[in-house]
TrEMBL record:
Organism placement in taxonomy: Bacteria, Pseudomonadati, Bacteroidota, Cytophagia, Cytophagales
Origin: domain of life: Bacteria
UniProt entry keywords in alphabetical sequence: Signal
Name listed for the protein in its UniProt record: Lipoprotein
Signal peptide feature range: 1-24
Natural source organism: Hymenobacter sediminicola
Keyword Signal listed: yes
Length: 142
């Protein structure tokens, strides 16, 4: 009798383990999507900083206006890369195979990470240029 119950129980256990691994794959796809969107949100929070630095570079007086123009173009390129990524991003359907979704999100993670590098380098370079162009503090004499 116990053997008979085990025979009925084995397919149920096999089905249950299959569901658990499917659920695990679904969780991986959700986590991959969340990671991509978290990087997007992080970069979006820096968009104002891009604009502010661009405006500051436009107003920066000094002999090195060529460098300021170059930095403004780099900031514009970072902005354009972000806009391009956002316009091209298309979340795969939930009904798509998990492997396909994971592959898509991996590709998108690579792309948004590249945009993040462009953001960071252009922001850092612009800040350095502005700092170098800032007038030195004058000392007061008594």
């Amino acid at each position: 009798m116990k053997t008979l119950h085990l025979v009925y129980l084995l397919p149920v256990l096999a089905l249950l383990s299959g569901c658990l691994s499917l659920n695990s794959d679904e969780q991986k796809a959700e986590a991959a999507e969340k990671a991509v969107l978290a990087k997007h949100d992080e970069l979006m929070a820096q968009m104002d900083q891009l604009t502010i630095l661009r405006q500051q570079l436009q107003k920066t007086p000094g002999p090195d206006t060529v460098a300021a123009c170059r930095q403004r173009r780099a900031l514009l390129a970072a902005d354009a890369a972000m806009m391009d990524w956002m316009h091209r991003y298309r979340k795969p359907a939930d009904t798509a195979a998990v492997a396909r979704r994971l592959s898509y999100f991996a590709g998108q993670q690579h792309k948004i990470d590249s945009v993040a590098v462009l953001f960071r380098t252009s922001l850092d370079s612009a800040q350095l240029l502005l700092k170098a162009a800032a007038p030195a503090p004058s000392s007061t004499r008594r």
